[in-house]
What does this fold into?
Amino acid sequence: MDPDLRAQTAAALAGDPDAFEALIRRHGRTLYAVAYSLLHDSSEAEDVVQETFLKAWQTRHRPADPGKLPAWLATLARNRARDILRRRRGQPLPAEEELPADPAAPPGTELDTAFSATALRAALAKLPDHHREALTLRYLDGLECRAVEHLMGLSNGALRGILGRALGTLRRTLPPSVRPTP
It folds into this structure.
């Protein structure tokens, strides 16, 4: 972690509201990806991010090392999302969100895109939580492997193994037109 970011993080943990707001802007999208990878519901994922930052503000004295703040925030978001999943058991799944139509796409492509997105969501939902989270952070949110390792508390080898197994499972379960390329 660069010294300026470490100083800003330390100031946020010490109670500086402006520094904490900068942390919210810096980590909000990643926490949303963590929550969405588990919940598959955008409004619930947004709620998880808000609750995570509220809890982080209230318990900001806990992380002793400012360098571990991103992993701590991701753990808070992951645990809150899992609480929601436990509460949701036995309830119907949330409705799938609409995908925006591409106006430049040839006719029939919208249906193919909707089918592909539905098949991908269904396949992702069947993966273990940590596989789904790793895939979402790495490929859908576009984080570098190092950032995903740090957020999930994994070594490089462990992350590579999880991603490899998850992609292999998707290749086996998805129709050929939707499969990820090696």
Remarks:
- The two ends are 32 Å apart (CA to CA).
